[in-house]
Amino acid sequence: MVDAHYNEPRLVALYDEDNSGRWDTDFYTGLMGTEPLRVADVGCGTGSFAVLLAQAGHAVTGIDPAEGMLDVARTRDGGELVAWLPGTAVDLPEGPFDAAVMTGHAFQCLLTQDEILETLQAVRSRLAPGGTFYFETRNPAARAWLDWDSAAAGPEVQESSAGTLEVEWELISVREMPDGVLVTFEDRTRFLADGAAFASRSTLKFVPADLLAQLLQHAGFTSADWYGDWQGGPFDPAASREIIVAARR
Q1: Cα 117 from Cα 95, distance rounded (Å)
Q2: How big is the CA angle at 25 (ends 23 and 30), to the nearest 5 degrees?
Q3: What's the predicted TM-score (pTM) here?
């Protein structure tokens, strides 16, 4: 099931404004280097990173399960440089790809060990020997979900290309599982110009690094580099907010 904010046109139109930071994509670009590569962008969203990679000389395939996102990706400036496909990692062409990326914490939309393993195996099977899968997931030890509720502060007023918005968040549930934490939350957006309101409920999985390492090994990856922040600092299981992985076939 694709969350509503990935297909509702008025919310999709604001996606790039809400996610304009480049710290993650700049980091991955630096790790990939300057030589032209064959790259799969898994969960490519509106395609901003895929297009940047293509404009830098890489041969890029972007894939996403949300048609609303792909509609934006196909029509953005430079969109003709990328091969766009609907689907998930299991729907990728055989490749081979030199690199695969999964940004925007899209990895956390995989809610079970089976889904995670299926994705890891699908990506690995399409990588060339020595190819690398770059992705990130939030470290459950940092408990980022504690900031995902605006009840105490009230709705936040934001200015956007669509006018003034009123945005709020509600933390619905936090479920401690043997293999991580499942967090469900809802974000609500109201367009003050006409009063139109939209709500989107999402569930994300927070996987501990030790289990993730086991799943990577099970999927057949031979080694991995682990980072704890977007400056390339080492991963600290107790303190890092991010688990950033560069896993090699």
Answers
A1: 19
A2: 95
A3: 0.91
Comparing CA positions, the residue from 204, 227, 207 lying closest to residue 141 is: 207
64, 43 contact by CB (below 8 A):
yes
How far apart are alpha carbons 190 and 150 in whole angstroms? 15
Q: Positive or negative CA dihedral for 114, 117, 119, 125?
A: negative
Q: Over the stretch 80-92, which tens digit does the pLDDT of each residue have?
A: 999 999 999 999 9
- For residue 34, give Cα distances in angstroms to 49, 55, 58, 95: 15, 12, 9, 20
Query: Do 161 and 14 meet the contact criterion of CB atoms below 8 Å apart?
Result: yes
Amino acid at 38: R
Strand pairing category for 97-102 and 83-86: unpaired
